[in-house]
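Posting this for the archive.
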Amino acid sequence: MEQKKGQTAICTTGLIVINIGVFMIFTLLGKSDDVLFMRQYGAMYEPYVTEGHEYYRLFTSMFLHFGIEHLLNNMVMLGALGFNLEPEIGKVRFLLVYIISGIGGNICSLLLNVSLGDVVVSAGASGAVFGLMGALLCAVIRNKGRIGRLNKKGMLILAVFSIYVGLSEQGVDNAAHIGGLVCGFVLEALLGSFKRKASNIQSNETWND
């Protein structure tokens, strides 16, 4: 889609730069694929969160990646989704969707691992990225099934295909993906509804004046 006049995807660009910057620092240290090092410096690890109360890991793990392929996959999707979504919903809503979806996806992953008795080290922006996918799907549906060149059918196919690919591969945090997708969709539905109500109230007040 074309960006709305006066709006740029500065938050999307900033998030990509931050993720790449963190990865480069870890790479220079020779630790970007070191599981123990990642666990020590902010990756998700259930015992540290549930027993050590290190809840900040729900956030910091969103900016850590295991290897260049992991990083590139997430950054390509972040760019593709963010450059379409951010101009549509604005910077504040975009960041809220990204951060809350990422944390929500990590919580879903944590709860599933605890229920299964699994102890794993996980990291990556994919929960947040799937949140953007869910939010963009919601925005397309709300906009009569189309935003620019994007349409509802295409977004649904992308979401289903992305989930399928994750489920068909080993070592993928599918709980974070699905949790992030749902969080992003629901959050954008709520934020969009709130904005429309606020706009209607403001319009009525202006009309009454």
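The chain has one domain: 10-202. The longest helix spans residues 174-208.
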